[in-house]
Amino acid sequence: MLMSVAVYDLLFWSAVALCVIAQLFILKAVFFPAPLPLDGPAADGRAAGRLRPASRPLEMAWVVLPAIGLALVFWWAWDMRHPDAAVGTAVAVINTVGGTVS
């Protein structure tokens, strides 16, 4: 059974919205962390599962890079919806970079 284009669009944009919301919460957790409690294992330096403190820039990179990758995957998926446009986009990118298309 085939679905209409409107159903595909609804599913696609629903997935985009849910991923954006999830990614925003991940970014919020990394860039604006909650303060550590003054009592318990974290106060003694025995945070659960952490043997050494994570590098803050490295932690931020591991959040930002997947967000960029996710945006590229969604762009590619939306572009593949129209195969002729996707080929045109690929040719334009290759020509911009300086490659050749045969």
Protein traits:
102 residues, mainly alpha, flat, 0% strand
Hey, roughly how much beta strand do the residues contain?
A: under 5%
What general form does the structure show?
flat
How many domains make up the coordinates? 1
* Overall SS class: mainly alpha
Helix content: 55-70%
Termini Cα gap: 38 Å
Low-confidence regions: none
- Based on CA atoms alone, the radius of gyration comes out at 21 Å
Reported for the largest beta sheet, the result is: none
Our count of helices gives 3
Order of helices and strands: HHH
Compute the average pLDDT: 74
Quick one: how many beta strands? 0
Gist?
With 102 residues, this protein is mainly α. Helix content is 65%, strand content 0%.
Could you characterize the architecture of this molecule?
- This protein has 102 residues and is an all-alpha fold.
- It has one domain.
- Helices cover 65% and strands 0% of the residues.
- The radius of gyration is 21 Å and the shape is flat.
